[in-house]
Amino acid sequence: xxxxxxxxxxGDAVAGGDAVAGGGSEAGSDLAAASRSATWSLVAICVGxxxxxxxxxxxNVALPALSRGLHTTTTGLxxxxxxxxxxxxxxxxxxxxxxxxxxAKAVFMAGMGxxxxxxxxxxxxxxxxxxxxxxxxxxxxxALAVPxxxxxxxAAYPDQAQRRRAFGIWGGxxxxxxxxxxxxxxxxxxGLGWRSVFYLNVPIGAAGLLLAARHxxxxxxxxxxxxxxxxxxxxxxxxxxxAGFIEAGSLGWGSPVVVAGFAAFALGAAVFxxxxxxxxxxxxPLSLFSSPTFSAATIVGMAINLGFYGELFVMSLYLQQLRxxxxxxxxxxxxxxxxxxIVGSTLSGRVMARRxxxxxxxxxxxxxxxxxxxxxxAGAHSAYWLLVxxxxxxxxxxxxxxxxxxxxxxxxxxxxxxGLASGTINAARQLGGVLGVxxxxxxxxxxxxxxxxxxxxxxxxxxxxxxxALLTAVAVTDPxxxxxxxxxxx
Length: 490
Prior knowledge:
By secondary structure, the chain is an all-alpha fold. It folds into two domains: 39-215 and 283-475, Up-down Bundle (Growth Hormone, Chain: A); 228-282. It is 81% helix and 0% strand. The chain has 16 helices and no strands. Helix 6 (160-192) packs across helix 14, helix 12 (327-355) runs antiparallel to helix 13 and helix 15 packs antiparallel against helix 16 (450-475). It is globular, with a radius of gyration of 22 Å.
């Protein structure tokens, strides 16, 4: 029984003075049991999300060592990062719909198992091409697990205030993973080699599966179809856009490959919109975007990942390739940025519970923009202390926004569309990460000097955060109802 149902039961017991002795204590015991169940569900969900975020952070620190081990170029490194993010983004909407249709618990566990096994394949990869393929399989696992995890979180916490705090904890766990990632990744690469950063996911995934099997709820299923035509069109658009930006760095903007990539994006995007508009059961119901809050928060999710993950990719290369830091030293250098994610995510949840998601989004986007813009001071011989405060501001800003934007999207969507709403915000975020690595990485690779490319990249990253702040100020509103959710009219 959900929290609201238990509150009603307790109220009935108080109103009925002739209730049998011990009835009130039994209701209290039921409440405590429900609370414990929700807590263990949150733990299982967070273990899965921890694994996904940790993988992203440790892989970035491992890139230079991976480049040497597999003899690949900067373009190859971009594909190693973006093969995962691209697959993740392209399949998230179908993953969300599948979770609604087949059951969030089963789909979450399938995603966790796929992620862990493909991580093992990444560690065993003999060539860059095999590694890219295994990274695609990781993206599939994440696309199944992440939207299902948010549907499960909603089921465990039907009360709005409790759900917002849970989003804060969920984001805080992501912050812990982000904070630990650079240091853990640096230590693993320095001590055991780059392959060890992938092997790490295997025991984490096994622990998550055990917790999920025992403690996760099984929310009701909804008859939302998986849309093959929309899925294929979306994949064509995302792959074309990513290929265009990545290959432009090495082949030039006028290359036939680059032009074909952007043409594929335009064609895929047009077909996707047409298919989704006409489909009886679309993968992404366009009616969801009639909510200004849903639309704005989705774009904010894309903007923050574009800025943050693009900056993380560029700064990892800057510290190790230009400044000569070891993997461990680079991880320690990035730790202040990642560690602030723990503080920001926890604070975001607390503020959301009292004031809603709009305030932490505005503050975080402004702070993150200031931090990214300040990184233009980075040069070939800059003192590290000049980078510490910008790193911290960027990490704190990102972590204030991420759980708040996610909560805003989830609360703006009808309750039975939880999987699709989760898939939408996470697809937008992953697309932002893909574009951030592709665009900012290409600027670094194509400019006359690394430093000039880095500075232009940081300006673009800061502009993405400022765009998000403007959209939040104009379009995002906080729901007034406590514990209620929009209902589908379809």
